[in-house]
């Protein structure tokens, strides 16, 4: 019992709360609400010393932001709770540390301000919404940090045991496969010997058998044509000649390998369209243009609500935030800036990435307060950067710079992996749980133009800049599953969108022509072209809820293709 009591006592005193981010955040905010300065500083100092000090330099700005915000929250809470003595205690304890920092210069007057909640300097820090957003930021940041920690070996025991059992099963399966292949090789060797022995007679056993079948068919009376029963799903084409010289029927592609549309609609934008995206609810379509305008179309029944945001810098990337963050757009610009825009108020906050141009922005499909930005850096336009931002604080959480342009990024469905397609032809997989690249492989000779995860969380579609579309397995170290014929992207661009339907039967992309290109996963060549544009299609998207495919072009037009349900 003594051992148990000691264990329970140690668990209660555990500052790391078994690495449960929500519990640590709750304890932090409890200290702040109760004006317990010593407890707050001790716990926050423990986190900085034990965990934050070991992070990459790219995350130091986030730590500094949270440190500043939590201390300001503590000070404002003492004012809210009419604990002026606690405010003065805070400034006395940390005064020497904060005095030289200009962001704290005006805060020394807070305890003596008559109405600080109305003061423009302090007003935002007294709002409930700011406090809630800070709480979310702390929880998410702690989760990111703890997910990147290496687990103790004892905690990994069960995981490693399961992995070992899976490997043993795979080994048994592979052994069985080897035996089958050996039998097949022996059978083929026997057939080869048989062919060699019959070669003297000038014909093969297969040829003899086919001649016998032809003679039997000639001897049988022909049946009336109406008695033939063709397959319901497969038709036959004209006869083809095989290597033996015998004519055989060739099967046509099933009709199910094409998409059936009920109508097509065209929308005009104000200038050449750079990017289109459906929102996560699939109730609206956003469009970014070369002229700096952003158009959105909301659908409700048969009515369409149109909204336009005007600007003077070309918009090169567009992404919607998740519904829980409200009606907002993430916009990337030709000057390297990123803006979080509120559609209702048409105001927003800007982020300067200090880069030349934003290429793409993506948010995870699952709940997360992070978003990814792909951009170009350097005057030579030869290097690419991947930035991961916190949507609440708009602070950078992580960044990775590679000596190659980053053309396309895509999250998998859980948001745990981010696939990155580079100009050097490599696909690099970024694991959001550990904030680093965990895999890479050479995918295309002339660079990757577009990339997208399939409906499952491990299949990846990649589009080559000059040739081929390929599918890969992220769970099998970049194993190439299938290759599709492709002519390459439009000559003035190095990027291409990829969209996959929810059943993983069709996917579409853009290319050199004035159309969207549709592929069936079982057909190595395109099965359809979409759109009646007069200039190349540069962006596409797929709404699986309402069965709408959108294609946009440099001719200022957007085509909506309505699929038959």
From TrEMBL:
GO-annotated molecular function:
phosphatidylinositol 3-kinase inhibitor activity
Disordered: annotated span: 190-253
Q: Where is the composition biased (Low complexity)?
A: 212-230
Which positions does the entry assign to WD repeats? Answer: 530-565
> What keywords were assigned to this record?
Endosome, WD repeat
Topological type in the membrane: Peripheral membrane protein
Query: Where's the ARMC9 CTLH-like domain?
Result: 23-147
User: Localized where?
Assistant: Early endosome membrane; Late endosome membrane
Q: Where is the composition biased (Polar residues)?
A: 199-211, 231-245
Stated name of the protein = ARMC9 CTLH-like domain-containing protein
Q: Which organism is it from?
A: Arcella intermedia
């Amino acid at each position: 019992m003594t051992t148990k009591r000691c264990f329970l006592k140690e668990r209660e005193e555990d500052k790391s709360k078994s690495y449960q981010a929500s519990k640590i955040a709750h304890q932090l905010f409890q200290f702040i609400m109760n004006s317990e300065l010593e407890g707050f500083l001790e716990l926050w100092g423990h986190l900085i010393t034990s965990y934050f000090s070991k992070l990459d330099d790219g995350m130091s700005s986030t730590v500094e932001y949270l440190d500043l915000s939590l201390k300001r929250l503590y000070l404002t809470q003492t004012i809210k709770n009419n604990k002026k003595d606690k405010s003065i205690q805070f400034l006395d304890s940390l005064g020497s540390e904060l005095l030289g920092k200009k962001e704290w210069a005006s805060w020394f007057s807070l305890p003596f301000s008559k109405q600080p909640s109305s003061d423009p300097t302090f007003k935002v820090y007294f709002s409930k919404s700011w406090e809630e957003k800070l709480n979310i930021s702390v929880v998410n940041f702690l989760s990111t940090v703890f997910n990147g920690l290496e687990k103790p070996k004892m905690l990994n025991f069960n995981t490693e045991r399961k992995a070992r059992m899976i490997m043993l099963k795979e080994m048994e399966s592979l052994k069985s496969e080897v035996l089958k292949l050996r039998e097949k090789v022996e059978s083929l060797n026997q057939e080869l010997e048989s062919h060699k022995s019959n070669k003297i007679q000038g014909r093969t056993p297969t040829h003899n058998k086919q001649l016998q079948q032809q003679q039997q068919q000639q001897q049988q009376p022909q049946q009336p044509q109406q008695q033939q029963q063709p397959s319901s799903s497969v038709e036959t084409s004209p006869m083809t000649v095989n290597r033996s010289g015998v004519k055989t029927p060739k099967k046509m592609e099933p009709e199910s390998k094409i998409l059936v549309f009920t109508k097509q609609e065209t929308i005009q934008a104000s200038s050449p369209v750079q990017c289109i995206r459906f929102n996560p609810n699939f109730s609206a379509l956003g469009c970014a243009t070369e002229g700096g305008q952003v158009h959105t179309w909301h659908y409700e029944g048969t009515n369409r609500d149109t909204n336009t945001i005007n600007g003077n810098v070309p918009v090169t990337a567009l992404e919607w935030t998740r519904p829980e963050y409200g009606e907002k757009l993430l916009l990337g610009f030709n000057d390297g800036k990123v803006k979080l825009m509120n559609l209702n108020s048409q105001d927003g906050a800007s982020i300067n990435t200090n880069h030349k141009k934003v290429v793409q922005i993506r948010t995870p499909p699952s709940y997360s307060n992070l978003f990814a930005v792909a951009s170009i850096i350097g005057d030579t336009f030869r290097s690419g950067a991947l930035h991961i931002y916190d949507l609440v604080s708009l602070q950078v959480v992580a960044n990775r710079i590679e000596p190659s342009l980053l053309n396309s990024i895509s999250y998998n469905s859980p948001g745990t992996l981010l696939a990155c397609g580079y100009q050097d032809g490599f696909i690099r997989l970024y694991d959001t749980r550990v904030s680093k690249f965990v895999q890479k492989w050479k995918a295309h000779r002339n660079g990757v133009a577009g990339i997208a995860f399939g409906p499952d969380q491990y299949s990846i579609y990649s589009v080559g800049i000059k040739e081929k579309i390929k599918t890969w397995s992220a769970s099998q170290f970049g194993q190439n599953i299938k290759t599709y014929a492709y002519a390459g992207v439009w000559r003035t661009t190095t990027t291409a969108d990829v969209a996959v339907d929810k059943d993983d039967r069709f996917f579409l992309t853009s290319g050199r022509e004035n159309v969207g290109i549709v592929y069936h996963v079982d057909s190595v060549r395109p099965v359809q072209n979409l759109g009646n544009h007069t200039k190349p299609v540069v962006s596409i998207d797929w709404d699986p809820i309402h069965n709408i495919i959108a294609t946009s072009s440099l001719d200022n037009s957007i085509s909506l293709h309505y699929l038959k349900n």
